[in-house]
């Protein structure tokens, strides 16, 4: 039985109003999604220019167009267990830096092969950023507004798609196709600093680690005035009924319970 002074973190968050800290998490994750959406479809904006400048056929761009999407799928599958072990904040910041850097390098590509490889590497980090932003938002949002908060934050991806088209229509005639990728690389690199300064780690992640108890209490005190560090323990979220203790998250998605959905 949990001690009387232990705190159920999820219930505490569910009982609070949406605090300034949670709004900050929302805004930062929304911006991540905007840049994620922009960089995911950047090739679609510059493909017509590449066909003309490089003198290639549209079919030759097939591998380039699909490379990022393949990377996104692989990145999304592989990074969940890593985030569970090392933290969502850390992996999200690294992912933003990663896809910003690879997009910037893509602007210097000289051949189809180079661009395909660089877009694949970009896709790996785009796939890592998206689920971690969603998970971080879901863990900070109270249950009563969780679906609304996640969907509103995820709409940033659509804003990135739409805004990317507007930006590309202005940049390409003025500075060439490279400028679209340069913008897609500089934006994430600039966003990484506010993320590093202001984005908190998942309080549920911290609460499950004995060496992070003080950090967890500090975050909870910013969320609600009823949090007090008088307690030194947290009630861990109950595992799913069919979950196997210690089982890798990736393998769990292939277990009988989730196999059909997977």
Task: Explain the overall architecture.
With 262 residues, the chain is mainly α. It has a domain at 19-199: Growth Hormone, Chain: A, CATH 1.20.1250.20. It has eleven helices and two strands. The protein has a two-stranded parallel sheet with strand order 1-2. Helix 2 (20-40) packs antiparallel against helix 6 (112-140) and helix 4 packs parallel to helix 6. The protein is elongated.
In which range does the helix fraction lie? over 70%
The low-confidence runs, each spanning 5 or more residues with pLDDT under 50, are: 239-246
Q: Count of helices?
A: 11
Main sheet strand line-up: 1-2
What fraction of residues sit in β-strands?
A: under 5%
Distance between the termini: 35 Å
Looking at the overall shape, the CATH architecture of the domain at 19-199 is: Up-down Bundle
Largest sheet: 2 strands, parallel
What is the CATH domain class of the domain at 19-199? Mainly Alpha
Instruction: Count every beta strand, where a strand is a DSSP E run of 2 or more residues.
Output: 2
CATH superfamily caption of the domain at 19-199:
MFS general substrate transporter like domains
Structural class: mainly alpha
Order of helices and strands: EHHHHHHHHHHEH
CATH-derived topology of the domain at 19-199: Growth Hormone, Chain: A
- Radius of gyration, whole Å: 21 Å
Mean pLDDT: 88
Shape: elongated
């Amino acid at each position: 039985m949990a001690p009387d002074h232990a705190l159920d973190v999820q219930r505490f968050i569910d009982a609070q109003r949406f605090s300034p800290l949670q709004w900050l998490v929302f805004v930062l994750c929304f911006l991540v999604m905007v840049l994620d959406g922009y960089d995911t479809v950047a090739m679609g904006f510059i493909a017509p220019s590449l066909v003309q400048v490089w003198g290639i056929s549209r079919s030759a761009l097939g591998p380039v167009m699909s490379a990022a999407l393949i990377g996104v799928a692989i990145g999304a599958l592989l990074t969940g267990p890593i985030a569970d072990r090392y933290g969502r904040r850390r992996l999200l910041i690294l992912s933003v830096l990663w896809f910003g850097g690879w997009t910037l390098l893509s602007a210097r590509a000289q051949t189809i092969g180079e661009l395909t490889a660089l877009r694949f590497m970009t896709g790996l980090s785009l796939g890592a950023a998206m689920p971690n932003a969603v998970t971080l938002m879901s863990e900070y949002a109270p249950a009563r507004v969780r679906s609304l908060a996640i969907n509103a934050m995820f709409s940033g991806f659509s804003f990135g798609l739409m805004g990317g088209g507007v930006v590309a229509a202005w940049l390409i005639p003025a500075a060439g196709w490279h400028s679209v990728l340069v913008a897609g690389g500089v934006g994430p690199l600039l966003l990484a600093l506010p993320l590093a300064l202001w984005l908190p780690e998942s309080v549920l992640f911290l609460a499950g680690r004995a060496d992070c108890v003080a950090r967890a209490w500090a975050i909870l005190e910013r969320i609600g005035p009823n949090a007090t560090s008088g307690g030194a323990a947290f009630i861990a979220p109950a595992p799913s009924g069919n979950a196997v203790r210690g089982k890798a998250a990736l393998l769990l998605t292939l277990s009988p319970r989730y196999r059909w959905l997977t």
